[in-house]
Amino acid sequence: MLEKRLFYFPQLSTMQSIYRNPLLRMAPGYAFSGDIHWQSPSNIAIVKYWGKYGQQLPRNPSISFTLQAAYTETEFTYVPRETAGEEISLDFFFEGQAQPAFAQKIVKFLSALAAEEILPFLTQFQLTIHSSNSFPHSAGIASSASSMSALALCLCSMEQELFGTLTDPVEFYRKASFLARLGSGSACRSLYPVMGSWGSIEKQAESSELWGSPCADWVHPVFHSFHDDILIVSKGEKSVSSRAGHQLMEGNPYANARYQQATNNLDQLVGILQSGDVHAFGQIAELEALTLHALMMSSQPPYLLMKPNSLSMIEKIRQYRLETQHPLYFTLDAGPNLHLLYPTEIAGQVAPFIQGELLPLCEEGKYIADRVGTGPVKF
User: Which among 73, 85, 165, 202 is most buried, taking Cβ atoms within 10 Å?
Assistant: First the structure.
């Protein structure tokens, strides 16, 4: 489900007009209907974006692993309305249950897309959305990334079916990424297999702040099958939402230095990802994770999202790495749960360590075994 604390619906009055097209309206007497079904994954950032400006634009570039097992399935149906109006008509269901309150949040988002003439045809149809997640709602995975990317893919498929546009796959996914960004910034990276970036990157010509960009073609094969085991330290709601955290960066005394650090880290990481140096990769991943949480602690007011068991896990991972020399590293999102990162070749050696040392520190002894994935799937 699209979590309230993560899902952001911007005011689009000054939004970039790159996709504005008033011709995307059905002619009188139209009778088209459709049923679209997409599955789209979540992602975990390696270089983090923390701080934004304007219409959901990042203060610094970022890059993430696309996950495989953590995804949202969205079925999107549309039928002509008997009387088309200016308002969006929508029913929303999450895991089979009607969610009228949350439907209004989606209506607000879709209404803005229609009013800005990016998808003006949306008001001409009765829309129904059925959404479900492959992971527990409280598992600490950013469901806004998977949910918004799945919804954006459905919207682009609807446009394609009705108007014959977006036939070029590059343009299709770029527009879907653009739409996903407007709902949840990190969602724009979930459109691509293996890894996705967001923001202007010097060594990636097609990169942009307006949409995510694919990275799989230049990433070393060792990272295509990397593991990402999600250790559930706490399933509780965060004390400070991600949206509030981004806003607090505006007054953070280290903000400008952080934005430059992230840019530098990503420039370094591009070469590391190309070479397949897993140790150098892990060092940047851990630096980025700890920097993110340091920024939270230096905000005004300061706040702390890590838990005591988060720190205990970090110490155990570092000690394991020191003793074995295995390339086992961690990252964290904006929360207490750790993502355990390692190459497939050491999975057999790492498994007993997870079971014996880390699971006792997880809430209810639970974790999610995930890995780098192949991107969205249309059914």
Answer: 73
